[in-house]
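We give its fold:
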Amino acid sequence: MKLNFFIISFLFSVVSTSAQQTFYVFPENHKSNPGTSNGNGSIVKPWNLQTALSQDINSVNDNDIIYLHEGTYNGRYISTITTVDKNTFVTVRPYKNDKVVLNGNVNSKLGSVLEVKGGNVIFQDLEITFLGNFSRSMNDKNFQVVNGISHVDGEDCKFINLKIYNNPGSGIGSWKRTGRSIINGCLIYNNGYMSKVRGSGVGIYVQNQSDKIRYITNNTIFNNYYKGIEVWSATSGTKFEFVKNITLKHNVIFNNGNPGGNFVDNVIIASNDKDGINVAKNIILDSNILYHNSDFTSDTNFGDGASLTLGYSANAPVEDVTVTNNIIIGKNNALRLLHVKSLIFKNNIA
């Protein structure tokens, strides 16, 4: 009987050590309960945001939740949290229905409001932006390009229901070492700046070197200074493929390029690898709405203003691209098939 009790107690202790933990973050300028680097993540001794995002696996781990309490978090942040069990996630989200804003309009050398370097993390229901006055012109002396989110490393992350807007750079850069990540339900708009020759800064810039599919779904992306979504690499000579295995579904993408003075591609799928090794392949574009506001009775409807472009370099034509059930509206021409090796194109309205 004593042996059975010992075994049951031991099993209970093992389960308890792996149970979900909750941690709490408050803005550093909170009047009554500021977050600090000396906190322990409890509700009475909360962390500041950077401290929370810097925790190692001995503190924050599988299925844990980091709650951000209401307020404006002024700063630029780097997240390195991850999990041991790659079937689980750490979740970073507001506490209850609190409004949480990450404001990157501060003095910093970091090039993103939020830089993500860890895997298996869910970022949910946050606002990523620049508040107050700031420059959007490279001609200004102190101008700095700052993206909303740069996901540079770590697979299986999820970016859910984020509002990413008014950043003087791209909305999200989701780069080649971040396979099977998901961007879903996000509102991405008014990101970008004026370079010396044109508007710059896209809604989403996405790559993928993994065999795991990357999903971009249910987002609304509009009025960014340059393109809406770039599934793209401008680099030659890399000797391996990293623009592949990406699915875009149920997105609404419109009027991108407008702040820069001209409508440009709402979506481009292509590569500029002149060696023809890194080509865009295994890309699915299904059930999206892509459009520019156009007056089809006007003579000014002619000229550049594509909603979808496939291919860029003759040396790297796109392969195994599927375009189905989309609405594609733009100026003349709304659809541009520049360099295409293999394509399924059906049930679209263009």
Q: What stands out?
A: Helices lie at 2-17, 49-53. Residues 2-17 form the longest helix (16 residues). The chain has two helices and 31 strands. The chain has a mean pLDDT of 93.
